Amino acid sequence: MRGEERRFDSLGIIIARTSIMTGNARQAVDFGVGAIKKGKEIGIFLISDGVWNALSDSGKVSETLKELVANGASLYISEEHARAAGLPRNRVIEGAVFIEDTYKTLVEKVMETWKEEGVKASDRKGTRTHQSKSTSTDKLKESEDAPLR
Q1: Are the beta carbons of 13 and 123 closer than 8 angstroms?
Q2: Strand 97-99's sheet: what is its strand order?
Q3: pTM of the model
Q4: Where are the domains of the chain?
Q5: What is the CA radius of gyration of the chain?
Q6: Four-way CATH pick for 10-136: 3.40.1260.10, 3.40.50.2300, 3.30.360.10, 2.40.50.140
Q7: Which of 98, 131, 135, 141 is positioned for an S-S bond with 79, CB 3.0–4.6 A?
């Protein structure tokens, strides 16, 4: 795919770390902002320590997640990981959905919704994005810094 323009209709983002642990959580949600501005379907899965990003008052990542949800993105939180972390449910972003069977739901989304194109980002940094065809990622980057409307 090197040198080719990559296109996608939907974007799946998996965040497994907090923004304090790695800057990739912030980069991933910013990429999501660019995609949703272009009308793309966005799904964000918070697993492992990434569930802490769902706290409605936890900083820039949570603020951006709120904007994304308000603009149609789906935000999924691993019930198992949230429970293990002691995440206070009454403080999570409004509209977030707790899912019981995290990996089954994730695999279903990857296979059915985000199946067309490759994976972006590093698993060492705790964030992955999976893209399926139809819009250039280069064009999305141009609009990432503008506020959502």
Answers
A1: no
A2: 97-99, 74-78, 41-46, 10-15, 127-132, 119-120
A3: 0.72
A4: 10-136
A5: 14
A6: 3.40.1260.10
A7: 98
